[in-house]
Design a protein that fits this description.
CATH class of the domain at 444-685: Alpha Beta
Radius of gyration: 60 Å
Number of helices: 25
Shape: elongated
Distance between the termini: 38 Å
């Protein structure tokens, strides 16, 4: 139940805005929206016609010169502006710069103008009120602390800020044209300021170019002098180095490198031959047998003597020949070693000489390149210096005036129609927001559909607000107006209750609510009177023993009450009161010190209900609010039908949720809920009044 009451009654996916419901809400609050919109338009009219100060706008049209050709080619000094957006945006900011506006303030003496210097105006009523409140609160700032120079500077800054707010610059799309607009309370002043601002802007461009030319010439002159000194030093350094070394040329160095390669080849060949000779000497020295000696020496004469080596003479010749071969090998090794040593020494010396020549050539070339680079840079800056000197006196401004300012005749501000429209739109939005906010913050029920969707119970009746202001006039109202909307609503309630169980119509009917003041007593009395009007025997029991307001509806005064019957002090027939006006019996409540919940939970109360069931066709019990005391839940255990009263546009949803949950906690299922005290005018105000329920205008008589 609680989940049902917390859910929105809007059908569809959660989180989806119901546009139709929103429009219906706005339509229901159309009077509020119309009233707020009307007030807003009136306020806007008062501001536009009575409060706002007329302002005049004067406009000057300026065009940027896009020059591609100059007297001489020095674009950085006098070249025209480009066409890209960055250049255009830069010029817009230049026109609105504080320095340029400051010059305009000084030249036009705007510090003495009250329009731009607010300190010259007398304080407004609002400012005086704020100052008075601050003085009362002890928040008056100290007078000392700002010296005259600082005060003058701050005043000038504030005037510049005011002028900046009055100046606007707009670039015409896809062009180099600017519209410079100045807004002022005086039409002639606006024209004068606009022309003066553009004139200063163009003059400022010329001043910037003159200053740039002078700075460029001065800087180039200094730079040329420095580059001349650097060039002379570089040339001197290259010349001195060239005279301090042997004459070296790339061709000579290339020939020396070829010689060095030949010497390296000779040295390598000699080393190879030395290695072969050393290997042959080692082989001869290692041969021990004649056969091995022949193989090592590979000598033909020794090979011919080898077969006769056994003869002494042959052996002697063989030994002498072999020793001679060994001696020759040793001499060859010694000779080659000497050659290798001489060639290595020559190679090292030649390599060092070639390497030094190569290093000297590289150094000389580097000095020469540095001198050449210094010469090129010097010549370039010297040419620039001459061009800059030639440009002095031929600068032109980057902008020119296409159209001077014209004195306006009609004020541009305030735009009365626009202000009225804006205030009207704001009022419309504020009214719509108020209506939607009020609808969103509504925590009550205004129609049967939302009540059924929220509670899950059927709405068995909808009773309008009854005309009688006094309680005693209620019974006579129904008797005198049987065809009124209220009477028919009670009949509908009666029909719904009796048809809630066709086979066994309810006999004991309980009427309850969540909190006091929802009209449950009025509903109980109205239902009882209506049932009695059908010729039924009806008993109305006042179950609210704490408040006991039932007697205020009747002229008859009771001599006792329910407590006397339950305690046995008096019989039921002696206590019950019969009202001949409506034809029903009433059992009033009675004050007691005992707990009312205990009384209704007693067996004697159950016996009393059993007794009156035998005597009456219908018994209506007016119970206390279920959220206040537990009496209603106890009484509900003995009844056949239960009616839960919800006051229209009053009872909070949370209260209804908790009250119904209390009944369900004791396994009591009510027959339905009743929407009570419906305001027909309020229904129309919320958009429910056209043909709503049984309360269509002109159908019933009141």
């Amino acid at each position: 139940m609680r989940d049902r009451l917390q859910a929105s009654p809007v059908s569809g996916d959660a989180g989806v805005i119901d546009l139709r419901a929103m429009l219906q809400t706005l339509w229901r609050g159309r009077l509020i929206i119309f009233a707020i919109t009307t007030v807003a338009v009136l306020l806007g009219g008062y501001y536009a016609y009575a409060v706002a100060t007329p302002l005049y706008r004067s406009e000057v049209v300026v065009m940027l010169n896009n020059r591609d050709q100059q007297v001489v080619n020095l674009d950085s000094v006098v070249g025209g502006l480009g066409r890209d957006s960055s250049v255009v945006n830069t010029e817009v900011e230049v026109l609105r710069s504080r320095d340029l506006l400051g010059k305009l303030v000084d030249s036009q003496d705007l510090i003495s103008d009250p329009e731009f210097n607010g300190s010259l105006n007398p304080p407004s009523a609002m400012a005086q009120a704020k100052a008075k409140v601050k003085s009362l609160l002890g928040m008056v700032p100290p007078t000392s602390g700002i010296v005259s120079d600082d005060a003058a500077r701050l005043t000038r800054q504030s005037v510049i800020d005011a002028l900046r707010r009055a100046v606007s610059v707009r670039n015409v799309p896809d062009s180099l044209v600017f519209q410079v607009t100045v807004e002022s309370e005086d039409s002639r002043k606006a024209t004068r300021l606009a022309d003066a601002l553009v004139a200063m802007y163009i003059e400022n461009q010329l001043e910037v170019k003159f200053e740039a030319t002078e700075q460029a010439a001065s800087w180039l002159s200094e730079r040329v002098s420095e580059l001349q000194i650097e060039l002379e030093a570089a040339e001197t350094r290259a010349q001195e180095f060239s005279t301090s070394i042997d004459l070296v040329s790339p061709e000579g160095l290339e020939a020396a490198e070829r010689q060095l390669k030949d010497l390296r080849d000779r040295t390598a060949d000699t080393e190879f031959r030395l290695q072969a000779a050393q290997e042959r000497l080692a082989a001869l020295a290692g041969a021990q047998t004649p056969q091995a000696q022949v193989e090592a020496s590979n000598d033909a004469r020794l090979r011919t003597m080898l077969p006769d080596i056994g003869q002494a003479e042959v052996a002697t010749r063989f030994g002498l020949r072999f020793d001679g071969l060994v001696q020759q090998a040793e001499q060859e090794v010694a000779r080659l070693e000497n050659q290798v040593r001489v060639l290595s020494t020559s190679l090292g010396e030649f390599e060092a000489r070639v390497q030094k020549q190569n290093s000297d050539l590289i150094t000389l070339q580097q000095f020469t390149r540095e001198a050449e680079a210094s010469r090129l840079l010097y010549e370039h800056f010297l040419a620039r210096l001459k061009e800059t000197s030639a440009q002095q006196g031929v600068q032109q401004a980057d902008s020119r005036v296409l159209s001077h300012a014209v004195i306006p005749v009609v004020p541009s501000e305030p735009r009365k129609s626009r202000i009225l429209m804006m205030y009207g739109v704001l009022g419309l939005m504020a009214g719509a927001a108020l209506v939607l906010l009020r609808e969103a913050m509504s925590d009550s029920f205004r129609d049967a559909q939302s009540l059924e969707a929220a509670t899950g119970y059927a709405v068995i009746g909808e009773i309008p607000r009854l005309p009688p202001r006094k309680r005693k006039g209620l019974l006579s109202y129904f008797a005198e107006n049987p065809t009124s909307a209220g009477a028919e609503a009670v009949r509908n309630l009666r029909t719904s209750v009796l048809l809630s169980n066709i086979d066994t119509p309810p006999q004991v009917i309980m009427v309850s609510s969540s909190i006091p003041g929802e009209g449950k007593t009025t509903v109980s009395l109205s239902l009882a009177q209506n049932l009695a009007g059908m010729g039924r025997r009806v008993l109305l029991i006042e179950g609210d023993l704490r408040r006991r307001v039932m007697s205020s509806y009747f002229d008859t005064k009771a001599q006792g009450g329910m407590i006397s019957v339950l305690t046995g002090k008096q019989a039921f027939s002696e206590i019950v009161v019969h009202d001949p006006t409506v034809g029903l019996d009433v059992l009033f409540g009675e004050a007691t010190k005992a707990n009312a919940a205990d009384i209704f939970a007693s067996a004697r109360f159950a016996e009393l209900l059993a007794e009156v069931r035998q005597q009456y066709d219908h018994i209506i019990i007016d119970t206390p609010p279920v959220m206040v005391v537990p009496d209603a839940r106890i009484i509900a255990q003995h009844v056949d039908a239960g009616i839960f009263v919800v006051r229209w546009d009053s009872t909070p949803r949370k209260m209804v949720s908790e009250a119904l949950a209390m009944f369900e906690s004791v396994n009591v299922q009510l027959n339905g809920v009743l929407l009570n005290n419906i305001d027909q005018r309020g229904m129309k105000r919320y958009g429910y009044g056209y043909g709503y329920g049984a309360y269509g205008r002109g159908y019933y008589t009141s």
